[in-house]
Amino acid sequence: MLDIKITRTTCPKEKPQDESKLGFGKKFTDHMFVMDYTEGEGWHDARIVPYAPFQLDPATVVFHYAQEIFEGMKAYRTADDTIQLFRPECNAKRMQDSADRLCIPRIPVEDYIQAVEALVDVDRDWVPHSDGASLYIRPFVFANDVGLGVHASKHYIFCIICAPSGAYYAEGINPVRIYVEDEYIRAAPGLTGFTKCGGNYAASIKAGELAEEQGYAQVLWLDGVEKKYVEEVGSMNIMFKIDGKVYTAATVGTVLPGVTRRSCIELLKDWGYEVVEGKLAIADIMQAARDGKLEEVFGTGTAAVVSPVKELVWKGEHAYIGDGNIGPVTQKLYDTMTGMQWGKIPDTKGWIVPVEKKY
Amino acid sequence: MLDIKITRTTCPKEKPQDESKLGFGKKFTDHMFVMDYTEGEGWHDARIVPYAPFQLDPATVVFHYAQEIFEGMKAYRTADDTIQLFRPECNAKRMQDSADRLCIPRIPVEDYIQAVEALVDVDRDWVPHSDGASLYIRPFVFANDVGLGVHASKHYIFCIICAPSGAYYAEGINPVRIYVEDEYIRAAPGLTGFTKCGGNYAASIKAGELAEEQGYAQVLWLDGVEKKYVEEVGSMNIMFKIDGKVYTAATVGTVLPGVTRRSCIELLKDWGYEVVEGKLAIADIMQAARDGKLEEVFGTGTAAVVSPVKELVWKGEHAYIGDGNIGPVTQKLYDTMTGMQWGKIPDTKGWIVPVEKKY
């Protein structure tokens, strides 16, 4: 149990008036959670303080060797003004896996959850009220040794910041076009694909920008060895409904084990669908499209929850999915997930964690 | 031509008294170079200011998505107190290649060199005097947009810091033991192996720490696809002299194009050696060792210049190189490179750039 020292801001910021203009991750709340790590001492000095810049020596490890990991979560406001989280223990555990790979000391799962809950509690007035809007929560850890040797740092900062963020689909769910990336890759076995480390995202920017210039919303990454098998899309996992079954890449080291991904798989299985987690060749997906069997395609992730795909392009060939509108299974997943998250339907899975008023 | 505004420190730090205890990249000089980038405006406000921390919002891109690149160079003091650089244009050009891959705006080669020269000039008293010690120069660029969207940033900081650093071989050249890494990889085609981006180093820490725990100085990375071909070692390139010829990995996207590497290749060719840049299987290297034909192995890099290897271990098999001492070609390369760098022998290649006194 962390002893979190709380220092409240004396000059609270103005809260956003127009929640329809929030966007994603642009405005931040009044406070942040911070905790330090020192080798030999462990994690210490857990505190909630006014949101403020870090002062960092230019030789701090994070600027040079990117020893940094993060998580992404949301807090949701229900109709009765309960503030709630979705499966926070999944994010806490995943951050431990990221930490292990990047040689960063683990944060205990219960401490991680306590820290998130405390900060969301202190800033609970910042959780948006409008439909589909939520408080995006960004826990992150970075190395703050000062020095240029390439080694695991002996000092780290764990910080959590929160950004009230608008509905992902401000103008209704809009199926997207996806570019199957054939040159750049996101991960390969033995690298860091299963983690949320900064380097994965830095390496992904170029392909994303090139796809966007061509009018595609996201990139679909193929495996890094053979460039044959689908892995994930942009910063989401991706699922394909082909001839009644749902296929998605197994999370075997190169694919991020998404919390929305596993939740959707559980729901799909509950509903009687067969879900195949394994290797799925892009060539087979394109063939399914030609055969009229590619019924639905959708991404899953914290930001969009479920994001329908209407078109794939691979090596110049276009595959069009369904009639271009969101498919019935995609819609049902979206409604069920968001229904539970915003408290509109009962949480039959035990996934929802309300944030109690303590502070 | 940059218009560099210079603000000198009013409280200079004490210079290190005992240069034998400098170590690497731990103490920094009185000043740093800083330049900002703003989309639409380009690079602007080039300045040399007292060495000081950055103040950065916790939502700054570099903490989350590691959009960051760096270079490594040295300034050397000669017997007549000339301060000189080694092929700075190679580092400037390589930083542009790193920038392109990471979607960071390029810094013009001449501006990069001017900035390095100006800072080294201002802090020239910090260049160590003792044999083998030098001023390590660390130019780096990081994204400093504030916001959590995964996109190329619209704002960057280019900073150069300098660290007086001790002789790499304080106690004489000591050949090292190398662990051939068989699980983790450093790069794969389509990723960022040819760049000096933070993410490459973050991903490499774990294998390095595991090897060190087992008594090895460095990891030898194999290719990311087949794990058959040697690529580089730790943070150096590596060369193998087998039966009279010198082999090293081609720099084809996954291998860092080292400045020391290309300089050594040029020297070797001048001296009449055949140098093969291509795919070299670790199995063939181990066979050459069994056949008594693995004559010399050495790493090349800015820090160590040339680092002899006395032992490789791959899948439990040990290959011992020569009699465990530095080989004649390795020694000749080391003597020639360091001779030119410290001005002890004539620069017959046009590689040396003296830093004029201007400031």
TrEMBL record, chains A, B:
Asked if Amino-acid biosynthesis is a keyword of the record, the answer is: yes
Q: Which cofactor does it need?
A: pyridoxal 5'-phosphate
Q: For this UniProt record, give its keywords in alphabetical order, as a comma-separated list.
A: Amino-acid biosynthesis, Aminotransferase, Branched-chain amino acid biosynthesis, Pyridoxal phosphate, Transferase
Q: Which residues form a coiled coil?
A: none
Q: Does the keyword Amino-acid biosynthesis apply?
A: yes
In its UniProt record, a GO molecular function of this protein is: L-leucine-2-oxoglutarate transaminase activity
* One GO term of the biological process aspect: L-leucine biosynthetic process
The family classification in the record reads:
Belongs to the class-IV pyridoxal-phosphate-dependent aminotransferase family.
Q: Please give the name of this protein.
A: branched-chain-amino-acid transaminase
From which source organism is this entry?
Answer: Faecalibacterium prausnitzii
